[in-house]
Amino acid sequence: MADESVDVSALVVAAINEAVQRRRRKNGDPLSRVVDGNRALRAQLFAAQQGDVSDAERVARSQLADNEASERAHVARMFKTETAVLQMDAKRERQARAADAERARLVEEHAEALRRLKAALDRDVAAVRSSPSAQRSRRATTAPSTTAATPAAPPRQASPARLRARELREEVDQLRQERTRQFAARLEDVEADFNATCEREQSAISAQAATQGSERSQRVKERADRERNTRVNDRVAVRAAQNRERSRALRTRTDELQKSVLLSREQFRAKSCDPYATRGEKSARPERSRTPAVSATAVDEAAEKEAEVERRR
Questions:
Q1: Which end of the chain is more exposed for a tag (fewer CB within 10 A), N or C?
Q2: Which keywords, in A-to-Z order, does the entry hold (predicted)?
Q3: Looking at the predicted structure, is the pLDDT value of residue 291 above 80?
């Protein structure tokens, strides 16, 4: 494990050094400019030391320190970049290995299914061959002939044993084909069931999403209605309060006006120069008709009507 870590570190360092050299060889590369500037500053520093110029030496030292810090920061950034690239390559390689392992697993499962099918067919063939009719035909085929064969005998027809063996081979082929068809039909049924299940689940998910969407829209509509009704009720309540306040002020002002009018009339009567009033008789001058006072009930009814009109609006 330690050897592997050392190898990876060496590869990372080599890659970073190569990238740094490649960047330095480019025209107008900031790192190459920094390196050239450092060389110039070192030359200036040497000249300043030789000429014993303290200010120039201090400036050159500060610039050289800044350039070296920028160079180290640039190298650190390139190291991080190269490390990220290597990590991405390793991640892609792990994903490729996982995909290869999954494909190998699927191939192994398919091969196992084929082996099970072949074993079932072999068992069926063995059962057919071990049947009593097959054994009789085999014994008839292997039994020695009792009659002497003549060299000039005409060609004979196929024996019943050969005919029976041919029939058995045909039956085995038919059985193998039937089993293959059954296996294919079973696979088709499984795929159809899987597709139907997927479609049902998809339709259920779609219906659930639609139901949730309709419920959500209904809730949003109800919330909007409640907020609108609340705003309307608030406006109506504010308008009703304003109307009550206005009616109260109107009643107060009306009472004050009535009191002022009555007081003015009393004062006018007291200061009047009516000759009949001086002799203790009632004045012959007709009194002016009083203005009927505004009823508080009428003011309240007017305020309620205005609030009702605002609520309907």
A1: N
A2: Coiled coil
A3: no
Candidates 110, 113, 131, 132; CA nearest to 121 is 113
Asked whether the whole model's pTM tops 0.70, one would answer no
Is 26 a domain residue?
A: yes
Rounded CA-CA distance 84/79 in Å is 9
Pair 141, 161: CB distance under 8 Å? yes
Position 55 scores a pLDDT of 64
Report DSSP letters for 59-89, one per residue: HHHHHHHHHHHHHHHHHHHHHHHHHHHHHHH
Tell me which of 49 and 161 has the higher pLDDT: 161
Could you tell me if 73 and 40 are in contact, meaning their C-beta atoms sit under 8 angstroms apart? no
CA 94/CA 88 separation, integer angstroms: 10
With beta carbons less than 8 A apart as the criterion, state whether 232 and 311 touch: yes
d(CA 281, CA 284): 9
Q: Which of 195, 233, 226 is nearest to 311 (CA)?
A: 233
CA–CA–CA angle 98, 104, 108 (5° rounding): 145
Tokens of 121: 């067919």
Q: How many CB atoms lie within 10 A of CB 214?
A: 10
224/313 Cα distance (integer angstroms): 18
Last residue of a domain, one of 62, 83, 108: 108
What is the three-class DSSP state of 132? helix
Residue 38: closest CA among 14, 66, 10: 66
| DSSP 3-state of 19 | helix
Token representation of residue 169: 């081979």
Residue 201 in domain: no
The predicted structure's pLDDT at residue 64: 74
Mean pLDDT of 37-48: 63
Of the two residues 89 and 282, the one the predictor is more confident about is 89
Length of the chain: 313
User: What is the model's pLDDT at position 166?
Assistant: 79
Model pLDDT for residues 229-251, shown as the tens digit of each residue: 888 888 888 888 888 888 888 88
